[in-house]
Design a protein that fits this description.
Largest sheet: 6 strands, parallel
Number of strands: 10
Helix content: 40-55%
Strand content: 5-15%
Number of domains: 2
GO cellular component, one term: membrane
Shape: globular
Radius of gyration: 22 Å
Order of helices and strands: HHHEHEHHHEEHEHEEHEHEHEH
Membrane topology: Single-pass membrane protein
EC number: 2.4.1.17
Oligomer: single chain
Family: Belongs to the UDP-glycosyltransferase family.
Protein name: UDP-glucuronosyltransferase
Amino acid sequence: MPLDVLWEHGHLPHKIPPDAFRTMIALCDTLLGDSALLTRLKRQNIRLVVIDLFTNECGLAFAYQLGIPVVGYWALPLNGGEADYAAGMALTSFSPIIPSFMSGLTDDMNFYQRMMNALYKLLGTIVMRLQMFITDNLIQKHFPGTPHPTLLLSNLSGVLANVDHSLDYPRPLPPNVIPVGCMQCRPARRLPEIMERFVRGSGEAGVILFSLGATFDPSWVPKEILERFLKTFSRLEQRVIVKYHGEINMEVPGNVMIVPWLPQQDILGHPQTRVFFSHCGKQSAMEAVYHEVPIVAMPVFGDQIDVAGMLRAKGMGVIVDKQAPEEEIIHALNEVIYNYR
């Protein structure tokens, strides 16, 4: 999938190119046709399979051939995709209370929003039915008689869901779905010396952590986006740590430190960190909640708009658009720094 499409149209399901399905088909056919791997695995003393469920029906079918219990792992919010079938959420009756995948809605919807949520649910169901049809044909080609992907999903021994009640909406969950969100969360450690001096030098104003994850790639993010951020940050009294691994061909303000990598949890857990400017990936959002740091969310693609909506609904952050002007970004940062408790 062209990466610039993710930046420009990451929240529009109809902009997903057909290449995504072609890639899935190629990977699926390659995996199911690897008889040597299946033979090798059968010879091992494997007692349990843990498998990522996202667009991985063929992986489930492959694991089914081993004849041992299979546990699924779901990394996204429980609001669409394979999780609907694995966690018993496929019923359309959930549409009025559970926001659909990539809708950006919350559980507090008016009538119009409920209608839009139902349309998102319908679109997601159509995509999943098409995906199941394609993968089931490939599965039957290699392993005739294997149960349909919907049955493989609904008959999992368990589902490890990357969710936590602090960052989710009230919902019914079957007993085989185990929330394991924030598994990676831990207390902060001391920062590297150079970074520690930079943070402590911020004084009472504190530090802003800016990281848009892998989505902030210099090869496909317009140069003017970084220029706009740096110009905006130069107007702040806070110091800003920016995660960016590209070449910098512009003047960097004195209150900004740009690094290709950073110890995110150690910065979030530092007492002088005031706000996290984030793309709202699920892991990053949960780490911010764990370390009690409010978020200014700039979602880029996929489930990030849904995670950002959860944060805003729970009073943990605000949302700004990727094309937001300087004044709007500064207003959002000040709102979170000075008015959130």
